[in-house]
From TrEMBL:
Region of interest (Disordered), residue spans: 1-70, 281-324
Keyword line: Metal-binding, Zinc, Zinc-finger
Biased composition regions of type Polar residues, renumbered to the chain: 315-324
NCBIfam families registered for this protein in UniProt: ZPR1_znf
Record-stated family: Belongs to the ZPR1 family.
Membrane-traversing stretches: none
Single GO term (MF): zinc ion binding
Name of the molecule in the record: Zinc finger ZPR1-type domain-containing protein
Basic and acidic residues bias locations: 29-61
A GO cellular component entry from the record: nucleus
All residue ranges annotated as the Zinc finger ZPR1-type domain in the record: 108-258
Length: 324
């Protein structure tokens, strides 16, 4: 279904981003008709401010949290393993301002192999929006690569929610900025990417949906053994359930057969005419001439049989009890 959307055979579909920080953006167009592109700003809740670090959490407000580092200076990271690299390229000066479109490099540690590597940073100005910081890390030891977007400047006072209906192939080429605090929703795909799941990205709508598809395939390949084990377990559970239902059906059928069987102690047979009652089942009469009644394990049972004849009908009572 995602591939059909990217090929243009599933238009229109809707994509929406919800960012409490207000740092996400979808490129608008003057040709958008009413309802195609909507942007709404809203006031953040206390929980959203706490998630963004703009307000103290409940533990800090109640005084139950850890004290500040100024009170307890021993709360410091010491003897880290491995230590941060001392050398390497570093053209970032703390006293200098970051210049737009200039590439800065500083030493870092690769999260894949924990060896020293360099991280490049560049300030980019997005038209009609704001400045963002593009960060890229490449490790020469293990080949690890990562690209991430960090929004520059202060956090706006309000969050924003942008909804866009993709109706033409040109809409897939629109730029989209998704910050790390943004939630991405696509109802047509039942897609809901929660904040913090992936880092910030500055790309197009098509590339963003393609990245979601690639990440899904990567997770399926990475967890192939887990998926296979789950499928095998599901098949085993289905077989066990099927066997249980089969055994249950056989047991029920056995109970019905036992209840309908001719047990000498549990069944009495009454016949018409001058035939006697066969308590032990040694002699049989045609099925049309007698009826079977279940008598249980009680000591005596009374059976009334109304005889039909051309004359006046009569009622015959016969008793059966333990042999004396």
């Amino acid at each position: 279904k995602l591939r059909n959307m990217l090929d243009g055979s599933s238009f229109p579909f809707t994509i929406s981003i919800d960012d409490p920080a207000g740092n996400s953006w979808i490129e608008p167009s003057p040709r958008d008709h009413a309802g195609k592109y909507t942007r709404r700003e809203y006031l953040r809740t206390r929980e959203q401010n706490e998630a963004l670090g703009l307000e103290d959490g409940k533990a800090q407000r109640d005084g139950t949290g850890a004290p500040d580092t100024e009170i307890r200076p021993e709360y410091k990271a010491t003897q880290m393993t491995p230590a941060m690299p001392d050398g390497g390229v570093n053209n970032v000066d703390a006293d200098d301002e970051i210049v737009e479109n200039r590439v800065y490099s500083f030493p870092a540690t690769c999260p894949g192999c924990m060896k020293p590597c360099d991280t490049n940073m560049k300030m980019v100005n997005i038209p009609h929006f704001k400045q963002v910081v593009v960060m890229s890390t490449v490790c020469d030891h293990c080949g690890y690569r990562s690209n991430e977007i960090k929004t520059g400047g202060e956090i706006p006072e309000k969050g924003c929610r942008i909804t866009m209906s993709v109706e033409r192939p040109e809409d897939l080429a629109r730029d989209i900025l998704k910050s790390e605090s943004c939630r991405l929703i696509c109802p047509g795909l039942e897609l809901d990417v929660q904040p913090g799941t992936v880092g910030g990205r500055f790309t197009t709508i098509e590339e963003k949906l393609s990245a979601v598809h690639t990440d899904q395939k990567h997770l399926e390949q990475k967890n192939h053994e887990l998926v296979t084990a789950y499928e095998e377990k599901s098949r085993s559970q289905q077989q066990i359930q099927k066997l249980y239902q089969s055994l249950k059906s056989q047991v029920m059928a056995s109970h019905v057969q036992t209840a309908a069987s001719d047990d000498a102690e549990n069944t009495l047979q009454t016949v018409t005419g001058s035939r006697l009652i066969d308590r032990l089942g040694t002699s049989r009469a045609p099925q049309s001439q007698y009826a079977q009644f279940s008598a249980g394990h009680r000591g005596a049972e009374q059976i009334h049989s109304r005889q039909r004849s051309s004359g006046s009908g009569g009622i015959t009572a016969q008793y059966s009890g333990p042999a004396g």
